[in-house]
Design a protein that fits this description.
Number of domains: 2
Order of helices and strands: EHEHEHEHEHEHHHHHH
Largest sheet: 6 strands, parallel
Strand order of the largest sheet: 2-1-3-4-5-6
Number of helices: 11
Shape: globular
Strand content: 5-15%
CATH class of the largest domain: Alpha Beta
Helix content: 40-55%
CATH architecture of the largest domain: 3-Layer(aba) Sandwich
CATH superfamily of the largest domain: Response regulator
CATH topology of the largest domain: Rossmann fold
């Protein structure tokens, strides 16, 4: 589902994604209709404008997260220095894309989100990292990482590399269901709402800068 206050943006994204054989856009609506429409259509992925005049994207994100079957939500923005980015991250957004994202890359990014991965526009990444890493002391992240098992820590490193559940399963020779269980445990232990937050906590703790073995213990 595409949520944006501008009909031209909605239509453009819908045409690009509908052209992919394995993607169906079930709805393209303005913000005020987003939560009700998502409840009716149950999309797997929502691309959500972060700034809209009728209702802001953060409010819509909260409503989507409270649904019985919440979709994966990536925020759309025209700003590479949007002050709402860190707020959306803490609210559980799975990614951030600029509206001028290469159209050829868009279907791949949606597939990544549907498969449990996270996506960050390269222009937005630095804003996200800076805003989130300024939110608290590094010791907090280290304590959170310390709660993880060795296998969970290995999964977290791969989450930090942007791998989807299927990619992690292939890399670690595990079943996808097992990876999903590990990811759920990681999010619970780190007390975060999504994979992007978990990856940034790993970055803050220095886990992603450490050398690691090719296979998990």
């Amino acid at each position: 589902m595409v949520v944006d206050d501008e009909a031209l943006i909605r239509t453009g994204f819908q045409h690009i994604l509908d052209a992919a054989d394995d993607i169906e856009v079930v709805a393209a609506v303005p913000g005020a209709e987003a939560v009700r429409t998502a409840e009716e259509t149950r999309p797997d992925v929502v691309l959500l404008d972060i700034r809209m005049p009728d209702v802001d994207g953060i409010t819509v994100l909260g409503g989507l997260r409270r649904l019985p079957h919440p979709p994966v939500v990536a925020m759309l923005t025209t700003f590479d220095m949007d002050e709402y980015v860190a707020t959306a991250l803490r609210a559980g957004a799975a990614g951030f894309l600029l509206k001028d994202t290469d159209p050829e890359a868009l279907p791949f990014l949606v597939r990544t989100l549907a498969d449990g991965g996270s996506v960050l526009s390269s222009k937005v990444t630095r804003t996200v990292v800076d805003g989130y890493l300024d939110a608290g002391p590094e010791e907090t992240a280290v304590r959170g990482i310390a709660r993880l098992t060795d296998r969970e820590r290995a999964v977290l490193v791969l989450i930090g590399e942007g791998l989807s559940n299927a990619d992690i399963a292939a890399r670690m020779h595990l079943g996808t269901g097992t990876v999903k269980d590990h990811v759920s445990a990681i999010l619970t232990k780190l007390e975060v709402a999504g994979r992007v937050q978990a990856a940034l906590l790993a970055e803050r703790a220095g886990l992603l800068r450490q050398p690691r073995d090719q296979e998990a213990p």
